[in-house]
Amino acid sequence: MSQEKILRNEIRKLVKKYYAVKPKERFIPGQTYVNYAGRVYDEKELVSLVDSSLDFWLTADKYAREFERKLAAFLGVKYTLLTNSGSSANLLAISALTSPLLKERQLKPGDEVITTACGFPTTLNPILQNNLVPVFIDVELGTYNIRTDLLEKALSGKTKAVFVPHTLGNPAAIEVISSFCRKHNLWFVEDNSDALGSKYKGKYTGTFGHISTFSFYPAHHITMGEGGALATNDPLLRRIILSFRDWGRDCWCEPGHDETCQRRFSWQLGQLPFGYDHKYIYSHIGYNLKVTDMQAAIGVAQLKKLPAFIRARKDNFAYLSKIFKKHDNYFVLPQPTRHADPSWFGFPIMVKDKAPFIRADIVNHLEKNKIATRMLFGGNLTKQPAYANVKYRIAGKLDNTDMVMNNLFWIGVYPGITKEKLSYINKIIIEFMEQL
Question: Out of 166, 210, 220, 278, which one is annotated catalytic?
Fold first, then answer.
C-alpha cells in the first residue's frame, strides 16, 4: 500500500476518534433549545467530507456524480442534477422553461405561471426574475396546499405552467394538478424542497412533474450545508438545466474534462466561426450554480440515512398529533392530503378564531420555554414589502392564505427531536392550556 493510502486511512481513523470524543449535546429541559430543524450527522459525514477535501478537487467530481446517481435511483427518475441550493434549483427549473430549444412551448415574458402566495419566496421569485406573471391561488386549510378546485378559474390564454410546493412535506393533490396540466398542455414543476421522501399514491413526490426541485439546506430532510438538486425524466430538459447551471454554455463536459462530444472544434453555432471551441459556446444566458464535491460528499453519507430520517419525522409527527388532538377545539390540526403519505417537514398548528388566546400567546409561551417555532414562511407573499410593485394576478381570493399568515405557526419534527424533547414539548403545552 502506498504511503498516500496509509496516511489517508490514518486520517480517516483520526476523524472517527475525533467525533467519538467530541462533546455531545445533553438535553436539559428549559435550558437546551429545542430547535425546529437542524443537522443530524455522525462520523460518517465527517470522514466523507475530509476524504473529499484530501482530493482537493474543489468543484463537482466523483462524489457529485455518485450522489446524482443514487438520488435518481432512490426517486426512480432518469436524471438528477446537483446545484448549490434549493433556491437555485427553483431558478434553474423556471429558467429552463424559457429556453428557445423548447420551441412553441418556450416560456416568454408576460406568460403566466399558476402558483401559491402561501409559502417560501424562492418558489415565487424565479417566476418574476424571468419576467413571467404569477397567478396566485388560495390554499386549503389543514393541508395548506394549493386549492386545485380553483385551477380552471386561474387559467387564461397566457397560462403556460404550474409551479407548486408540497407544503411542509404534505403532497399537493398531484393527480388533479397533473390532469389539469395535461389537458391544457402546461408545464408542471414540483417544488419538493420540503418533501423529500413523501409519497403520493405510493410514488415519491418529485417524480410527477416535468421538473422537480430539492433543497439540502441544514433544515431539510438531508443536508449538504448548502445544496440543492433538480430531477427530470426528459433528456432535453436535463440538457437545458445543465446549460443554465454551467454558465449557459452549450458544452456538456464535466469540469476538468474535454471532448465529451468528440466534436469540440467541429461546431458552427450562432454567428461564430466554424470550429470555435465548444467549451466557450453559449446557448443560454446562464449562471454558475454548481455544487462543490465536498458538499456532495456530505450528501452521499446523508443519503444513506434518509430512510431512517423519514421514519423519525413520521414518528415525531404522530407524537405531536396525539398531544394537540387533545386540544383540537382550539386548533386546526394538519391533515395529510388524500392518497398521500407525507415525510413531514414540520407540524403546522393554526389557532382557531374562537380560541381564548391568539397565536402570539402560545408562540411566546413556547419560545420563552426554549421551544422553537416558525411561521409558514412568508405567509401571504403579496403582503410582503418585496412584492409591493410587482405584476401578478389572483384567481379568486386569498382568504385562507391570510388566515395562515395571521393564525398559523409550526414546530419541528426533524430526527434531532428526541423522545425526551417531545415529552418536554408535551409538558409545556399542558402548562399553557392549564393557565387558560
Answer: 220
